[in-house]
Design goal:
This protein is of the alpha+beta class. The protein has 9 helices and 21 strands. The protein folds into 4 domains: 88 residues, Phosphorylase Kinase, domain 1 (2-Layer Sandwich); 173 residues, Orthogonal Bundle (Transferase(Phosphotransferase), domain 1); 83 residues, no CATH class; 63 residues, no CATH class. The strands form 6 sheets. Strands 1-2-3-4-6-5 form a 6-stranded antiparallel sheet, with helices on one face. The protein has a 5-stranded antiparallel sheet with strand order 14-15-16-17-18. A hairpin with a 3-residue loop joins β1 and β2. The two termini are 47 Å apart. 30% of the residues are buried. About 3% of the residues have low confidence.
Length: 463
């Protein structure tokens, strides 16, 4: 392009994308000194009337919208090139990375992150579909969703872009429109040149499946045109049911609105590993917020030691009881005459009472330990809690909780290891020391999933 400044206001910095008859440019608004995006539609023999109509519609609709999670309309004008004319549409620039790039660079998203993304995007759709007339995006896919400020504690800020396929639905229209969208993410009704608000829900559902699997919907397992959501490893049963309704091919069986889908998603309980593995007999509970993460697991490893401890303590209790019965009469026969001969009968009674109480106290303590161990075998839990400052290690039993080792600074964590090549478990390395859990009841995929949950929240390396 020969022009470096458009309309004496927009300084072209570089080209972001190009396809037949279209260019997307990054520019600087010389009036505000802010970065902007300029979409150019160049008039040539290849342009079709439908492309012009969609281009003008995108600008017109964005001009009437005002939402923080979508681009803002700035300007629309004609451009005279060397031997051609073009239309220029200027909108705000969002400095962020697409979900597609996130998958390519960092791998798949966790279920908790997918839920957070879904909630943000559904709120955007509630706004769009709530316009009068309703605005249907028609091309929701990973490359059209931007994400920035992502950290281990938060999914970050989410944006929906590229309204080039947007459609408005009015009461006077029959919802008939041009076939637009991206294969794999398009709802079945869009292939019949029809789009409704629920069509965006299908595209969003397909996008979320991609985030969980890293596979394009075209390559994802399907049967008779339906996604086999149950085959997604890192997806709980209840989220799977929700996704299944999002990508239901039959429009009548899909969620009717983004508000209904969001309400249903809000009702889903917290994620646990047993929801997506029939081989996992005990649940792992994960509670995660911006400030703290808590992971509660069964004490399978501790259960074995608890049984040994129980048997050992029981033997001690029996031996202690038998020895007390045998030794007390002998002790009494030795010391009673001494106290009586010296006129210390009262002191003798006090001493005897003290000894009996001490022995009884020891006996009760031993039996309490036996009872606690008996209860701990089926009901005991181990809890790992990490906040912004420290790491805490606790045992839980019947609503009671106690810390079995001192807390340590969070900065002591140097790496995570899912130990998938040996017996699957999750290992947190604290300098040269390690803390592990999950051994004996996690499979390889589950250990990797749980390790990724911690890695994403802590924003550290997994090995």
């Amino acid at each position: 392009m020969s022009l470096r400044v458009l309309k004496e206001r927009y300084e072209i910095l570089r080209q972001l994308a190009k396809k037949a008859g279209r260019k997307i440019l990054l520019a600087r608004d010389l009036q505000t000194n802010e970065l902007v995006v300029i979409k150019l539609l160049i008039f040539n023999s290849e342009i079709e009337w439908e492309e012009l109509k969609l281009f003008q519609r995108e600008a017109q609709i964005l001009r009437n919208l005002s939402f923080s999670a979508i681009p803002s309309y700035i300007d629309f004008f004609e451009v005279a090139l060397s031997n051609k004319k073009a239309l220029a549409f200027v909108q705000s620039y969002i400095e962020a990375v697409s979900l597609e790039q996130h998958i390519q660079n960092k791998g798949t998203f966790s279920e908790i992150e997918v839920k957070q993304l879904a909630k943000f995007l559904l709120q955007i759709l509630i706004y769009l579909h709530g316009q009068n007339p309703s605005v249907v995006h028609r091309d929701i896919k990973p490359s059209n969703i931007l994400l920035t400020n992502r950290s281990g504690n938060s999914i970050g800020d989410v944006f929906l872009i590229d309204f080039g396929s947007v459609q408005t639905l009015t009461s006077s229209e029959s919802d008939i429109c041009t076939v637009v969208g991206t294969y794999g993410y398009m709802s079945p009704e869009q292939f019949g040149a029809r789009a409704v608000a629920a069509s965006d829900l299908y595209s969003l559902g397909a996008t979320l499946i991609y985030l969980l699997t890293g596979k394009s919907p075209v390559d994802s397992p399907q049967k008779l045109g339906k996604f086999e959501v149950w085959r997604i490893n890192n997806c709980s049963r209840e989220l799977g049911k929700w996704l299944k309704k999002m990508v239901e091919p039959e429009l009548e069986k899909r969620f009717k609105s983004a508000a209904e889908a969001l309400n249903s998603l809000d009702k889903l309980s917290s994620t646990n590993l047993s929801d997506f593995s029939s081989n996992l007999s005990k649940k792992i509970s994960i509670k995660k917020s911006a400030d703290v993460i808590e992971i509660t697991t069964p004490c399978r490893k501790d259960r074995e030691s608890s049984i040994v401890h129980f048997i050992g303590t029981l033997n001690v209790a029996i031996l202690y009881g038998m020895s007390s019965i045998l030794l007390l009469p002998k002790i009494e026969a030795i010391f009673q005459p001494i106290f009586i001969n010296h006129g210390l009968m009262n002191n003798y009674l006090l001493a005897a009472t003290a000894i009996l109480m001490a022995m009884l106290s020891i006996y009760v303590t031993i039996w309490l330990k036996i009872i606690v161990n008996m209860l701990f075998i089926p009901f005991g839990k181990k809890k790992l809690q990490i906040d912004k400052q420290r790491i805490y290690f606790s045992y839980k039993l019947l609503g009671l909780e106690y810390r079995y080792r001192p807390s340590i600074p969070r900065q002591a964590i140097i790496k995570l290891d899912s130990n998938t090549n040996k017996i699957p478990e999750v290992i947190i390395w604290l300098g040269i020391y390690k803390y592990s859990f999950g051994k004996g009841f996690l499979n390889t995929a589950q250990a990797a999933w749980l390790s990724r949950e911690l890695r994403d929240w802590l924003d550290i390396k997994t090995i």
